[in-house]
Amino acid sequence: MPVFKEMDPEVAMKLLEGYENELDPEVKKLDAFYRQFKCPKCKGNMGKHFISVQHAFGGDSIVPRSGLKCMTCDLVLDPYTGIVVGLGTAGAEIAHEVAVEDD
Q: What is the pLDDT of residues 57-84, one digit of tens each?
């Protein structure tokens, strides 16, 4: 059975010298996109939430995409389509319209 041997961090950093960090700007851009959303049901704050592998890697981004989950009522939303994926704890009442802005 193969054994994973971790590379020395100093050697890894030396190998990365001269290369541009392309992940951090993309992460900051997506975080700004996610922060604009409020829960369509209770207007609470939303945090990143894993929906599925297909959703995470379904776009053209170099970092995985996230869904959003309400911190108050647990509603789960796909911010890219505006589709409510999970109704959360109070699933009887759901907003009928979700605003989606075109790029």
A: 877 778 888 889 999 898 899 888 888 8
Q: How many helices, marked H, and strands, marked E, lie in the chain?
A: 3, 4
- Structural domain boundaries of the chain? 38-88
Answer yes or no: pTM beyond 0.70.
no
Polymer length in residues for the chain: 103
Q: In the chain, which ranges are E strands?
A: 46-49, 67-70, 76-77, 84-86
Question: What b/e string do you get for 1-35 counting C-beta neighbours within 10 Å, with b at 16 or more?
Answer: eeeeeeeeeeeeeeeeeeeeeeeeeeeeebeeebe
Which of 103, 101, 17, 29 is CA-nearest to residue 65? 29
CA dihedral 17, 20, 24, 25 (to 10 degrees): 160
